[in-house]
Specification:
The complex is a heterodimer of chains A (84) and B (189). Chain A is an all-alpha fold and 84 residues long. Chain A has six helices and no strands. Chain A is 76% helix and 0% strand. Chain B is mostly helical and 189 residues long. Chain B has two domains: 1-93, Orthogonal Bundle (Rna Polymerase Sigma Factor, Chain: A), CATH 1.10.1740.10; 126-189, Orthogonal Bundle (Arc Repressor Mutant, subunit A), CATH 1.10.10. Classes of the chains: A mainly alpha (84), B mainly alpha (189).
Chain lengths: 84, 189
């Protein structure tokens, strides 16, 4: 067991500052984002018109289907469509 | 108080698709990943944000590759470190091949952050009011006045509570926290 005096404990507490809330929230929502991405890709596989619309104007096509994609989601969809 | 899940339990539940456990995992390690990129590697905000998101994206994607579920902390540290180095390399095109882009003292600082995380884990075992006041004062750098306003306490009371809670945290770290009598003697009212 390491013995630490209170000054040392206080200094150690000060080393771990909170990360910006928006960063933490985005990371916490990864499972949801991942499922949303899978839904979009499945739909693009099944519906050629939707796929064409995505390629023509990704953001508008997603918005018209009720998605609210942020920049990360748009990048992720682009990467997945490119790799298909 | 619900006992906190161990890292191994948390990882196992994340693999089963438990979103709440994933949120807890991110919460538990967000400060650590952030501190490595900002303090040890001195990344700017945009680069640190990119590294932060990439660390957790890769962790989420490759959680099944973690061979030892108890090794989550070193795995995340290594992942963060590698991504910080990649970021620094991509930003310094004139760096001669083979030269290290790592700032001095990274190993020492990460060692300190490991110790800080241990202290932070002990903080989570204290009653919520103690954890909150210590976090506000030492990690969030809030003044007595700001804390007093938020918690509706006079500044003098804030100071004495911080002192008592720090003593309690030290007790927790030394194992006294397992003794209910010792915990009571913290004098929380």
């Amino acid at each position: 067991m390491t013995t630490r005096d209170e000054e040392r404990i206080a200094a150690l507490l000060g080393l771990l500052k909170p990360a910006p809330e928006a960063w933490v929230k985005a990371a916490q929502e990864l499972p949801l984002a991942s499922r949303t991405l899978d839904d979009i890709v499945d739909k693009a596989r099944a519906d050629i018109e939707f796929r064409r619309a995505l390629i023509a104007d990704l953001e508008a096509a997603l918005a018209s289907e009720g998605y609210e994609p942020d920049a990360q989601m748009l990048d992720a969809v682009r990467r997945r469509l490119d790799s298909e | 108080m619900q006992p906190a899940l161990t890292d191994a339990e948390l990882v196992a539940r994340c693999r089963e698709g438990d979103d709440d456990c994933w949120r807890e995992l991110v919460d538990r390690y967000s400060r650590y990943v952030y501190a490595i990129s900002v303090q040890a590697f001195r990344l700017g905000e945009q680069d640190a944000d990119d590294v932060f998101q990439e660390v957790f994206a890769r962790a989420y994607e490759h959680l099944d590759r973690l061979r030892d579920d108890t090794a989550l902390r070193p795995w995340l540290a290594q992942l963060t470190r590698r991504l910080c180095i990649d970021t620094l390399r991509s930003g310094s095109r004139e760096q001669p091949a083979g030269d290290s882009v790592e700032p001095d003292g990274v190993d020492d600082l990460i060692e300190q952050l490991d110790e800080a995380l241990t202290v932070h884990e002990a903080l989570r075992k204290l009653p919520g009011h103690c954890a909150e006041i210590l976090d506000r004062f030492f990690a969030r750098d809030e003044s007595y006045r700001t804390i007093g306003t938020a918690l509706e306490l006079p500044s003098g009371t804030v100071a004495s509570r911080i002192s008592r809670c720090l003593t309690r945290l030290r007790g927790e770290l030394e194992g006294e926290g397992r003794n209910p009598a010792a915990a009571q003697s913290g004098g929380w009212r």
